[in-house]
Design brief:
globular
Length: about 100
């Protein structure tokens, strides 16, 4: 089989955006996610720094701090800025989503 006949492998690209709104008080943020990245798992954990949000998928082993996500929305304690932010396609993978919020 030559190179022209080999099927090309494709790695799914991560795309979409996250809208961050004020939550029930100043300590919470309400996240609305528009991405197909969330379609194959139910539990996610979140880590943030001053500049970015990292969302990690969990399949079989689910940590205590993971949230169940079904509706395209979730709420958690956060100090990230309010606004709409694009998902970083270069740093995100199939299991970890990176969003720079600055």
């Amino acid at each position: 089989m030559n190179n022209a006949e080999k099927p090309q492998l494709t790695i799914p690209r991560v795309s979409g955006s996250i809208v961050i709104n004020r939550g029930r008080n100043d300590k919470y943020r309400h996240f609305i996610v528009k991405s197909k990245w969330f379609e194959d798992a139910e539990y996610y954990s979140f880590a943030e720094t001053v500049n970015y949000l990292e969302i990690r998928k969990h399949y079989l082993e689910v940590p205590k701090n993971a949230q169940k996500y079904k509706t395209g929305q979730f709420m958690c304690t956060s100090q990230l800025p309010i606004g709409k932010f694009e998902i970083d396609q270069n740093e995100s993978t199939e299991d970890v989503l990176v969003v720079y919020c600055h």
